[in-house]
Amino acid sequence: MLLEPPYQINSSFLEEAERPRWRQMKHACGENPNGVYGYTRMDTVWAFRQAYNKAREIKDGQDQYCNDVLDGDWAKLTKEPFPEDLQWEAMVDILRGRVKVQVHCYEAVDLDDFVRLSQEFQFPVAAFHHAHEAYLVPDVLKKAYEHPPAVAMFAAVARYKREAYRGSVFAPRVLAQHGLPVVMKSDSSAAFHSRDLLFEAQQAHFYGLPENLAIAAVTSTPAEVMGMGHRVGYIKEGWDADLVIWDSHPLALGATPIQVFIDGIPQLSSPHVVEKPKAFQVSPKVPNFDKEAKDTVNYEGLPPLEPEEAAHDAVVFTGVKSVYARTNDSVDEVFLAEDANSYGIVVVEKGIMKCFGSSSQCGMDLSESSATIVDLNGGALSPGLVTYGAPIGLEEINEEPSTRDGAVPDPLYQPVPKIVGGDGALIRASDGLQFGGRDSLLAYRAGVTAGIVAPIHDLFFAGLSTTFSTAARNKLSEGAVIQDVNALHVSVRHFGSPSVSTQIGTLRHLLLHPDDSHAGKWFKNVAEGEETLVVEADSADVIATLVSLKKEVEKQYRSKVKLTISGGIEAYLLAKDLAHADVGVIQVPARPFPAVWEQRRISPGPPLTEQSSILTLLEHNVTVGVGITENWAAQNTRFDVGWIAIEAGGRLSKGQALALASTNLEKLLGGKVKAQSAHDLVATRGGELLDFESKVVAVISPRRGVVDLM
């Protein structure tokens, strides 16, 4: 897999070669080395300076030795050996320009430290990686030795630790505007793995990175940064024939390879292809985020995110192309304009949709109206989406304990203090809710108006989930807690100890032999079919055992147990059985990735399989929802659902796709709020909620009786 072995590997130092063959070295600054070595930031920079100073001393000694050889000073040479040290050999080569330096570095202070280091020891920096604050200090990066470094970053991944808190979706465009090379990258997480690398470029383009630079950010720019631009990253005569044929424009949502060539050899023997509409063959006309990008820089990465309430009780949306609304437990298209000449209006009063259709149908004379007018320019109204799976609403920064509710104690693994439930009490997520978090507000601005979250847990026992508003300022705000208690949650996974069979056995005992404790009453309610049980499980073997347990409980209680599988990566293998047993599945994440053994049997969808695991479940009439694994991903829910709809190739209506992250989720998680007047609507300008051409501009909130404007 080695693309180009460096000359030094076989000791042939070809200084006069046409081009160097690069070695690469990774450095890290900030929290990562601090956590490993117990350093402060000052310690880390001092360690770097010591290392480079040692390398420079060796390099200078080697240069002097070679000068002595050229001068013929044999007496001196026989006294001192050639200066070399295996520990520092690679760093000496950095100073000789043979090794490219890639630096994991987040914050402005660390970026500045490393730029000064590059100047002190005179070596170029190939790229800063992650670099969440780089866009706030572009002029600092330009001061690096020899040339400005590239910035290799994620599109939306941020706020998972303090260093990443100021990360922004607008960072790629801002850096590009300052002339800095932008590279979009993946990571080892199941949430943003290399299979979806192109999606990183698509998101960057959506938020304002120009089309050519977005495509270059995953092709030619990283090739040049690695020193491989003479072989890969371009379609040119004489370059490696590593090519991808896409089924749509690379920046269109859901773009999928039809064929992949490595050295001209096709890699897919029988690719599965979904025919895409013509509109997907051109670059999407993305929204304008100029103001948001400017505000982000002006506020040093932390712009205000709270929406502004409409000035009038009455709000009229014009230029409406389509309206999707909840109908019982489904989402249906209730209005669709044939063309731009027949765009309709939607009249809202105190957060309640009163009418949709033409102006005459709604009896509305816009020229005389005192209402707030919002032009959607061919946009749509859709139900507010719901997020589930990550602990959004219970934590602000995952790696900062002071910002989290914390994990519940687990009686299977540790003694539970009586004061917090040693007598069998269940923990309620609603007691730990935090409002006004940046991930919650960003999700709201992307059409995700509610979250359902279970207590944070590491092992078997979780507790009772809750539904909350992502826009609420605090728990006492109107409509902040939508449903105090949703469902009972546990996990059955391969933790190592205790065994999976012990976990199943515990669950069986709790359901078949409940005691009189608070927890016992809840498990009894589940067994009698009154409450929903959500079990986190991915393995098809574990899921099959849970289905059998459900039947066992139903036989004893003569009931209908409401069981939902969360995670469910391998659930599609049991689609027929799940449908027959009336077991629903929330797949987390929407696009599966085999991160651990019990997730290995994925069905990824085209081009590798005919259809995805989600579509397999839906075709067997299993109720399906989708979730996320990390808080930042909530704002991408609209794209996750849109991708599923595109991949379905017409087998899934937009209403059915919207239900995956709204009505279906609520049903699967014990939602009991059924009134139409209790659910939000999202207004998008320029297109529908699930595409790359629309922008969320308003949320209609019946619960609070207002319309929020973005």
TrEMBL record:
It comes from the Eukaryota. InterPro entries: Amidohydro-rel, Metal_Hydrolase, Metallo-dep_Hydrolase. Residues 172-263 form the Amidohydrolase-related domain. Pfam families: Amidohydro_1. The lineage of its organism: Eukaryota, Fungi, Dikarya, Basidiomycota, Agaricomycotina. This is Amidohydrolase-related domain-containing protein.
